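S.,

Sequence below, as promised.
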Amino acid sequence: MAGDRRSSRLVALGVVATVIFTALGLRMWFLQVVDSPSLELKVQSNKTRTVKLLPERGRIFDRDGRILADNERIVVVTVAWEAMRDDDDRVELFSRLAPVLDMEVDEMETRYAGPVGSTGERTGSRYSPLLPMPLKEGVSEETVAYLLERSEDFPGVDATIQWKREYPFAPLAAHVVGYLGAITKSDAAQYKDLGYDLNERVGQFGVEKIFEPYLRGTPGFVRYEVDSRGAILRVIERVEPTPGNDLQLAIDLDYQQFAEQALETQLRLNRFITACQAKDEKRQLVKPQFPACSNLKAPAGSVVMMDYSNGEVLALASYPTFDNRWFNSGISGDKFTQIFPNTKDPDQSLLVNRAISGQYNLGSSFKPFVAYAALATGQLPGGASYRYNDQGSYTLVSIDRETCQMVKCIYRNALCGGGNYACRYGPVTVEDALAVSTDTFFYKIGEEIFSERGGQPILQEEVRKFGFGSRTGIDLPYESAGRVPDKESKRQLVEDGVLMEGESPNYLVGDNVQLSVGQGLLAASPIQLAQAYGALANGGDVNRPLIALALLSPSTPDSEQIGFADVSKSTVVLNLGLKNTVRSLAIPSDILQPIVNGLTRVITGPGVDNGTYHATTGERLFASYPYEDLPIAGKTGTAQGAASLPWNDSSAFAAFSTDATRPIVVSAYLEKAGYGAKAAAPVVKCMFMAAAGAATMDPVAPSNPLNTDSLVAAPERRLPSTRCLGGAAYGGRD
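The prediction came back faster than expected:
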């Protein structure tokens, strides 16, 4: 039966190993290794010797049981430290081993004494001096037999059986699953206190890191009585290891693959777009010190797809990405540095999970929460029926004219008329303002909610209710809290030298005006954006995002379907998928409905007509979207980048299903990729079309073998069809 394939494979490996060891007649080998996990020696006294039995690590599955992380039993050749202490003996031994193991002597020296550092000296081995040094993993049984038959030629050389981590669908979900790595010097004391040997591999990223204590299992041991020469006399005690718990994630690998494809495809397409800066009334460049035009870089981005009813994360993609199998491949240090350069340029960083660690301005995608703040605090006279006459610009009224000579007091909408003038929308309600994304409506809120209330952080307090400025608590490492700017945070930014020299440490009305349109000192992540939009979708529940659904009993059997485990035959040890509502706002309908209506109009229209029709920011893009199959509401956002140059603009979009029976929320953020409607919105549109069954999706298949000759961290992913990205996108700033 297919469900027994995994057990059969292990039995077969055990038979092969037993035949080899019996043929060699090596009693020491038999006692230490046969039919056991990795055996690592630690001398406890001159009368006993304890051999640690490392357990099989728990496997990781997606929500349907696809095996995202598996284990393979491998043979590892080791060398006793005593055999390498003398330099001449070590060089001679390594020279003999090199052709047998197909390794360079320098690679062996690196394992022994560490890589060469900046001073020209080796930095020291990362392996424990109390345990034999692993020299090469994945050695064939023929090679092991050759070495052990000639022990006099290879003194101190031995072999053990260990578990090697496998990622069958890599590089899919690499930022979620993570990888294993050596225990770092900074973590050595912590892991030693937990009973780890310092040459064990531990979770260093993703759920491999977060759930390390559960996935690892409990080591066993064999304690031997030995004579004065160290020869084994008898077994005193044997305790078998307990395998680690298996882990089932909320991730749906079908959506995950589609999200990664849509994200990378859109970024690559936008690199062909040329953005040009605006001109003044004399047709001169506004910023003549910069080029007139430049191509978008579109270097990076992320996508989050969640169930807003309970917080389960269905997909979480970050680009650029990597193949987590590189961390198990045994490549040289030089090549590893080529693939994973240690760069300070955030655009080039592969190992940053931008969905949870990215710190971004959100642009107009932040406006729904400013609208909530204004309505909830009574800032708008008449509430949702209040109309503001938008004439394209807003002048601060709380600052006198003399001061306005020194600070910015006039704020304008995005450009209309082919970029010739600021858009003028006429009388608009909060619903209209969200639909067409007028800035001046929100500038007015930003000023008045600050100046009329004595500079109190009213706006900050209201938007924080949706989770901005705090970690969501997602079960992944390295999440950033973000920042909702206020007096304290701005003062700290100035003290830390983050802001430009000469910037006032005082939080000013202009800072609040910028915050009201998602700009300025605001910093938020795509996971926070998805969490916040999910709260709008479900009526006010701010749910903690959940990556993991359950810890399962060890050794979940394989399914008859290749690449799957049968999670129905495993026992739930700990249910991790319980809804965890951080905060329940219970938003009144007279506040929530105008916001949802405005966001719905972003998708469907209509815009506003004051003699000139102004389309909503998404109606042209979503004209081809099957709204009747899966109705949605959402908001575009464009975050201005360095020097407010258009090719530095980043794109945000978030949307949710208004059909509560299909509670999906999606957010996307594409860095330096242009307007919200032209970069992030198409990606989100694709995700909802996939959910509606209206997009072509590739079947998820196990990976091809890792090409260890490549210098590419991960192969390119493309949508099978770019049709879902299409639409006549709005040409304005949002």
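The chain has two domains: 2-35+73-167, 253-725.

Coffee later?
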